[in-house]
Design a protein that fits this description.
The protein is α+β, with helices and mostly antiparallel strands and about 110 residues long. The protein is about 35% helix and about 20% strand.
């Protein structure tokens, strides 16, 4: 199995801020993620819990690979047995499809 570490080139793709109805609809497809903030600071976040520090850091490293491949980097708050992940799309001033795609990919890491 080969892993393509090439970053997405966002200059060739159009991204836009999702409207409220689109956000609510997409939120139902990413289990455990919550809406927070408002306006340009709106984000989705989730707390991932683990048995110990090693598992937490393993998740953080996997999340870093997802972020690198998507060229979309979340805010991470890392503790001994948990990691809080927060996504938003700064360049559109809100949430985009990319935030929800990345959230789904992080959920899939733990299936």
């Amino acid at each position: 199995m080969t892993t393509d570490l090439k970053k997405k080139d966002w200059s060739t793709q159009t991204r836009r801020a999702l409207n409220a109805a689109e956000i609510v609809a997409r939120l139902t497809h990413v289990e455990g993620w919550q809406l927070e903030g408002d306006g340009a600071d709106i984000a989705i976040s989730k707390t991932f819990r683990f048995a110990n520090y090693f598992e937490t850091i393993a998740f953080v490293n996997a999340a870093a690979l997802v972020a690198h491949r998507q060229d979309h980097h979340p805010d991470l708050q890392v503790s001994y047995n948990r990691c809080v992940v927060r996504f938003n799309t700064h360049d559109v001033g809100g949430l985009s499809v990319t935030d929800f795609d990345c959230a789904a990919q992080l959920n899939a890491l733990l299936v």
